């Protein structure tokens, strides 16, 4: 396995997409200080999952995104991709190549992608675990990491050794198992408490459950007994209602027949009265006709005078028209002259257009020649430009070499100055430590303050959460109440619809005919009167009272259908019914003048009901002569005013009958057929409204529930923040301990600063010689570029001249097009003028013709008026004879009116006799209706009780009747059952389900406790096994690393001795690691007594020892040899070559020895401030090889 390539975009100083390809062996990344070469190592560390912005040399994670320069805008995201060849399958993924990408957006969103699939950070970490890679592995080593290996405490050096031993994955599994073990122990405690609480509830619930079961058993028997009693009573009431219904129908038929006779006589009376009125009107009209004849004669005399005046006006108009015809002849000659002038102008414009076309053709030819010259020269200019670009590229390469040398000189001088100042830095370091110590102490104080604030915030959130929870409970209670209300209304509506569907309240005969019509046994049956009309609820009692038994009259399509219905009733002996055929029933509306102006008048009965227009005759026959009034007083006044000629019904059901009798009293609205129909519609509307409110309440409840859930999450997040603060406190305290340790070590480092100055003097001399050679070639190339640029300027001048000539010709051609367009528009305008003149000449000719026609018309009018005068004079003669005829008609009409008045008196006497009969039938009808309503109320109460108590309707309850049961025995048994139920006292019906639920939960929790105890034992066993495996692996690996370290140390230092020692050999997983070394000729008691270069070499030896036992697939070494002198750099670089068979190395360096050993080099420069550029060199530079 090896690193194939690295892709960066928007990461730190690399705003554009950059790709670095790596081969096996050693790749060196070189460049001056500040050029961004270390950003490549940071990119690899970042994509492997590094979460510390401080480790990545930033204040916050957003700092890794390119922040922009004075010339470049910031970018929106940073992206780094590692492409790894997984040929040996070290990575646990089934793919020959693995691509790992990390993206960070400026909004804070982050992505991890493996082979195109989005994953978690955890997945990336587990992928590289125990491979030596990863953010905590030893595949990325920088100067700081080298120093940590030597300077850290013995127990802080373990990470790199554990990764080498391959126990990181085991430690991760052990930590995961310990976390799960802690959760299991917490769950055991919680389950133990729950089981204890459930045990205390099981036995009481068992007793309550048995009591509830007994109650249910008794209630079921009570239900069966009660339903049996009720159904017997319903059968009795149904029989009684059918008998009463038959009587009501017979009475209603007689009443309606009487009322029909009265209506017929009143209709005859109205016809006679209408004839008398018509006779009086005729007499009046005849008198008016006499007056009209006199007025007509006066008008005729007036018309004759007007006609004579019109004849005089026509003669004057003829004189004016003759004068106009003479003036038109003069205007026609002027138009012919103007037309000739316009024709001459057309010839001139057409000549100008021909000239313009010739000039345009010449300009077009010259333009084509100019374009050809320009295209030829552009090809030659392109060749010169390509040659100049190649010179620029070479110049850029030389500049990189010179700049690199300059930077290397500057870097060496800076390192020399750094060595001179090192002693001063060490002395001042003690003072800086005091500042760091104060900063950490202040941080601890600030953290304590923030922790108090967070504690107060959590307390406030808990109070707010409690308030929201109370509101949620209230909303849920309101929702439950509203749901119960909807269910109650729906239940009542279902009951009423069941009554409606079963035609409760209708007579047996009516039910039989309607059912036969519905089943298709009788054709032409439409329905009852109650079914064809709709009444507003405020008028339903008045209409029910007005119609009475007529509500059950059956409406048919024709007389044949009515006959078929009567035949069915006769055949089945089903009783009697009244039929209303649409084709034969033609009722009339009451037509009394001034009725709508009476106080308390509401409307005619036929006007307050709605119905299909085809039923108009039937509705008028039943309600057309019935008036609806507000109350009994208003009804009495209206009846008295119109002589008690028609019936009046009040809104509360009182009646003033035709003839003067009154019917009234209390009314039971629940029994009405129309009332039931309106009640269904009302309940349906209420259910719809309540359902809408319920939906709103559900939405509000859901919103409150979401708010409480969010608040609970906020509280959990706040508690997480509090725990994070506790972790920060531990970190601050650790940092304070580290500062104290560094203060102890700084006193031993003074004498290391003076040893490196001489090395840098020789290094400066070598670098300057290489820079002079590159500078000479660069100067020669600059002269060649200057000459080429001068030639390029001359070519550009010629190109500009050719372009200018082409643009001039193009402009000229455009001007000629515009000129031609203008001439064509002028030509069109002149032609339009000629058309206008010709049109005007035609108009003058037409005017003369029209004048001649007008003269002829005036002469015709004169003749017509003379003829009208003759007719008017003849009409005067015939008017006298018509007046005598009218006087004869007046005398005849007066005699006819006297006969009609005699007939009206006879009709009124017959109406009075029939009205007395009708009042007697009305009283009988009221008595029968009251008896039927009482029975219907009892019937409805039983049905309602059955629905409310058992949610059953008679059609459903029939199957629950006890067969062949004696009513007395059932009643006695029912009383016994009720007493037993009372003796049970308070019963908790939910105890059955609750007991079942608690029992099941108790068994489930007990099983869960057993499972968790088993899991706990397995986890404890797993932890022990992991611990033993880790101990074995670590001990074996440590032994090998120690042996390799001893050998490599003597090879690198040329002698001496070294070893790694566990501070606590009995606890290898917790033991610290001491480093004991003695370079040749020295006795060292503490690593801090070594020079900086010696400490770095010791760390490098440990690193090589680790690579020896567990080579990482690839390693990134970021200037770890910076503190070494040239001799030791060469040793380090040559030794590095020993590992290239198993490990691929990418070294970030500016040391010559390392560069000489590299197979491939990448140069990093920063020609534009803030932006890094890459240059790849397959072989080391020639100047380095020569040296």
What does this structure look like?
The protein has 1187 residues and is of the alpha/beta class. Among the domains are: 326 residues, Rossmann fold (3-Layer(aba) Sandwich); 164 residues, Alpha-Beta Plaits (2-Layer Sandwich). Helices cover 69% and strands 9% of the residues. It has 20 helices and 22 strands. α5 packs antiparallel against α12 and α5 runs parallel beside α13. The longest helix is centred in the N-terminal third of the chain and has 334 residues. The radius of gyration is 59 Å and the shape is flat. The two termini are 35 Å apart.
Key terms for this structure?
Rossmann fold, 9% strand, 1187 residues, alpha/beta, single chain, six-stranded mixed β-sheet, 22 strands, 69% helix, Alpha-Beta Plaits, six-stranded antiparallel β-sheet, flat
How many helices? The count is: 20
As for the CATH topology of one domain, it is: Rossmann fold
Molecular shape: flat
The CATH architecture of one domain can be given as: 3-Layer(aba) Sandwich
Radius of gyration: 59 Å
Distance between the termini: 35 Å
Spatial sequence of strands, sheet with the most strands: 2-1-4-5-6-7
Number of strands: 22
The pLDDT mean sits at 79
The first-level CATH class name of one domain:
Alpha Beta
Concise structural overview:
By secondary structure, this protein is of the alpha/beta class. 24% of the residues are buried.
Topology at a glance:
Blueprint: E1 2-9, E2 18-21, E3 26-30, H1 38-47, E4 77-85, E5 97-105, E6 110-114, E7 117-119, H2 121-128, E8 140-142, H3 143-151, H4 158-165, H5 168-501, H6 508-519, E9 525-528, H7 529-532, H8 540-547, E10 554-556, H9 559-572, E11 579-581, E12 601-604, H10 616-623, E13 626-629, H11 632-641, E14 647-650, E15 655-656, E16 662-663, H12 673-745, H13 757-950, H14 954-957, H15 967-984, H16 991-1053, E17 1057-1062, E18 1073-1078, H17 1092-1109, E19 1114-1118, H18 1126-1137, E20 1144-1148, H19 1152-1157, E21 1160-1168, E22 1171-1177, H20 1182-1186
Parallel strand pairs: 3-20, 3-21, 8-19, 10-11, 13-14, 19-20
Antiparallel strand pairs: 1-2, 1-4, 4-5, 5-6, 6-7, 9-10, 12-13, 14-15, 15-16, 17-18, 21-22
Helix pairs in contact: 3-17, 4-16, 5-12, 5-13, 5-15, 5-16, 8-12, 16-17
